[in-house]
Q: What sequence folds into this?
């Protein structure tokens, strides 16, 4: 039976012993392989380090890899070298911190075996294997060199699995949504990463091992990292969070996915009894084939349907950015951001058997050529991005951005100019007169945008000339 913390395309294959394995690719660092079997994991217990609570067992399968002696590990503070003795202590600390975050008080039931193997590269996968033998038990296969955030995400994921499967008597393990594992791990990372992960000593002075810790905590803001990202990028929608792409899970999207996941989890926990509802969701995950059903059941009092989740989340994002908008963008950055929002990426095939090529089209092309459902889906996203960007735009681009927002909102049927009205299960089909009027307004706004862009470019030229004189 396959279960994954990551909802993305994957190809299953069978191993000789009958276990079905789900491979998520070398760029996704946390997969979950689930197998129903009897007995414990066959590991040499005499070489294991047992944690204080007895839940965690850590072991190194062989000598450290050559990467542990590399310059990258010595100089880059993001990388860590895992040590069996310290790993068991770190696991206990991470569990206690996670339990405090979600208010968990029930005793653990599943044992977790942390198996360290020599890293082959700096991007080795971390794999979780779950087995049912009365209680569910877990094996986390860790490279001896990895990043702190990747390790913390893996530990958060396996601990959430342990909580979800405590009363699971099925042969199917729970499915943990990626946004929950990532969001909670980022919350823990923001709170006290240095105190959670113990590292081997860097040197020994007078027989005492010492490790330097560089940590500054003033006016503590758990969301400071997310705030920096989301002030310059639009947060993902709930649907996008539910189906992340590989590049988002690995952080190759500029951290937008991780920042969005952290903020989403943070706001869920801030709901009345939010932690209790998250625990209820975890406990109900084994009862359903997808986590969305468990989520809807646990948060029924807050969200009557998925549409209500999207509305609530959109309001939270706008409020989050508005509370601390930071400095405005420069005119040049504002121009580039607005250009980016107003372009729609599409894949075009020149011939039927040719590979698709990437292109960008205008909102006018979308309105003229796409059907109502596709139009609405695209324009919803653009309306939301314009609403968020307007808070940071330099004048007069802020006024122009508001013009685009109002035009799209009116086209979608938002007579009250409410930027959240566009979440509509059954979007109306615009009349031809409405469409033609909207196209004309967009053309007029594009003309104004070209005039502003020309003025910005002229000012840059004069600034360059002035700088050259000195």
A:
């Amino acid at each position: 039976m396959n279960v994954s913390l990551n909802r993305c395309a994957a190809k299953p294959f069978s191993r000789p012993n009958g276990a079905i394995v789900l491979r998520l690719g070398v760029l996704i660092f946390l997969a979950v392989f689930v197998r129903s079997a009897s007995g414990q994991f066959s590991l040499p217990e005499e070489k294991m380090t047992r944690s204080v609570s007895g839940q965690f067992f850590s072991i190194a399968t062989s000598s450290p890899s050559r990467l542990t002696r590399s310059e990258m590990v010595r100089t880059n503070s993001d990388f860590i070298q895992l040590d069996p003795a310290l790993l068991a202590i770190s696991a206990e600390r991470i569990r206690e911190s996670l339990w405090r975050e979600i208010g968990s008080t029930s005793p653990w039931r599943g044992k977790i075996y942390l198996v360290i193997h020599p890293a082959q590269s700096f991007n080795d996968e971390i794999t979780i294997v779950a087995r049912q033998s009365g209680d569910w038990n877990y094996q986390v296969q860790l490279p001896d060199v990895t990043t702190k955030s990747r390790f913390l995400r893996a530990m958060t994921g396996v601990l959430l699995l342990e909580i979800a499967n405590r009363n699971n008597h099925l042969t199917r393990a729970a499915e943990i949504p990626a946004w929950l594992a990532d969001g909670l791990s980022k919350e823990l990372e923001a709170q006290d990463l240095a105190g959670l992960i113990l590292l081997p000593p860097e040197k020994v002075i007078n027989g005492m091992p010492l490790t330097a810790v560089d940590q500054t905590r003033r006016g503590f803001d758990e969301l400071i990292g997310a705030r920096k990202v989301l002030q310059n990028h639009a947060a993902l929608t709930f649907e996008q969070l539910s189906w992340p792409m590989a590049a988002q899970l690995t952080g190759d999207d500029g951290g937008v996915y991780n920042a969005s996941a952290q903020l989403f989890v943070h706001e869920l926990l801030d709901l009345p009894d939010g932690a209790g509802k998250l625990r209820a969701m975890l406990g109900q995950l084994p009862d359903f084939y997808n986590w969305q059903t468990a989520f809807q059941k646990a948060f029924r009092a807050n969200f009557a349907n998925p549409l209500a989740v999207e509305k609530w989340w959109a309001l939270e994002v706008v409020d989050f950015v508005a509370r601390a908008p930071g400095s405005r963008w420069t005119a040049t950055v504002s121009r580039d951001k607005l250009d980016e929002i107003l372009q729609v990426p599409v894949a075009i095939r020149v011939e039927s058997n040719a590979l698709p090529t990437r292109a960008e089209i205008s909102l006018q092309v979308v309105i003229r050529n796409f059907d109502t459902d596709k139009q609405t889906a695209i324009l919803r996203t653009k309306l939301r991005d314009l609403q968020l960007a307007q808070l940071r735009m330099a004048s007069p681009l802020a006024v122009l951005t508001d013009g685009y927002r109002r035009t799209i909102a009116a086209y979608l049927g938002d007579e009250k100019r409410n930027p959240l009205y566009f979440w509509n299960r059954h979007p109306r089909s615009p009349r031809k007169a409405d469409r033609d009027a909207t196209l004309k307004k967009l053309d007029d706004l594009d003309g104004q945008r070209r005039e502003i862009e020309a003025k910005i470019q002229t000012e840059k030229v004069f600034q360059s000339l002035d700088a050259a004189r000195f």
